Amino acid sequence: MNKQKFIDKFLRALVVLAIIKIIAIFAEFFQKTFWSVIGNLVIFIVVLVIIFFVIIALENKEKSGNSSGRKGGGGNFYLENSLFDRIRNKYEEAQPKNTLPKKIIQELQKSI
Fold first, then answer.
1. What pTM did the predictor assign?
2. Lowest mean pLDDT, pick from 3-7, 22-26, 36-40
3. Rounded-to-integer distance, Cα 44 and Cα 14, Å
4. pLDDT at residue 50, as a whole number
5. Dist CA 46 CA 73 (whole Å)
6. pLDDT in tens, 41-75
7. Measured at the alpha carbon of residue 63, what is the angle toward residues 62 and 69, in degrees to the nearest 5?
8. Which of 6, 13, 62, 79 is the one with CA 20 to 30 A from 34?
9. Which residues have a Cβ under 8 Å from the Cβ of 84 and sit 6 or more positions away?
């Protein structure tokens, strides 16, 4: 199966939407003046070019990041287990005693 990166899929979708938008702008010739339509077209093309350059920069950044030998998971940040323990402790403190069955609390403690 052909694997594509998210940026490649996004670029293809952007091109399809841009073509549809340009057709819609040209369809405005029947309702608006010539210069109004040309103005809308120029504004759209400027925005499209900016988005395109940002996506290309992200793609280049992704490629250079992969070639630098950096390996790792998909996460952007790391949460320590102590954070989960603090959240669980605050939750247990906020709950009145014996409102949750002890079995559920034990299962939560085993999973953490």
1. 0.50
2. 3-7
3. 13
4. 92
5. 36
6. 899 999 999 998 988 888 888 778 765 454 555 55
7. 100
8. 13
9. 112
